[in-house]
Amino acid sequence: MFNFNKNTIILIVASVAIIIGFLYLVFTSSNTTTQSKSYKIAKEILKTDNIKWSTDKKILLVEYSDFQCPNCKLWNDFFKQLEKSNSSEFKTVNEKITFVYRHFPLDSIHKNALTSAYAAEASGLQGKFFEMSDLIFDKQTEWSELKDPTNFFIGLAKSLKLNEEKFKTDMESSTVKKKVQEDKASGIQANVNSTASFYLNGVYLDKLNSSQDLLNILIEESKK
């Protein structure tokens, strides 16, 4: 038979309590669903944002993109095809989701990323941001390696019947350059580390294995 004094009993009880507490902590940690982080900057529309689709501005899909990024081109191709499809899926998304495009030029590896962003913004000042964006992406391989693609973008502006002189002035303006800079700064706040990056109502979508994954998420969100 064991003889336990009062101090021994207290020590045993305390040890058991510590073990139970530790096991509970391990159990709750392993069974708690990790919540995706929400970024305030990506769940609000800025005054200078370029937007399309729904005018409701209640459900926001924010994309941070780089015109010289091949992956971003693929995403733009997907959105263009989706918009042209006139499918019931896109109609559902188009009625509820507001699409927000923001610049995140990776200018350390893409030498013409900034210039292309300036060209898109200069076009936006004449109401043709997304039209120019589509052209820039479509012709990505034609301007990406040019020493200076400015004249190439002026040619695209002409094809869109923009005011050429205004376009050239705006491309070099502090207003346009500040806009691109502010977009990238907002992306840094949202912890963007690659392009394209997507946020739905401020939550980073980190498990997109295909364009269909994104479409499924948007359709589900639209039906809520």
Description of the structure:
It is a single chain. It is built from ten helices and five strands. A hairpin with a 2-residue loop joins strand 4 (197-200) and strand 5 (203-204). The longest helix is centred in the first third of the chain and has 25 residues, at 6-30. It has helices at 6-30, 70-85, 88-96, 113-124, 129-138, 140-143, 150-159, 164-171, 174-189, 211-222; strands spanning 50-53, 59-65, 97-103, 197-200, 203-204. A five-stranded mixed β-sheet has the order 1-3-2-4-5. The protein is α+β, with helices and mostly antiparallel strands and 224 residues long. The radius of gyration is 25 Å and the shape is globular. The model is unreliable at 21-35 (pLDDT under 50).
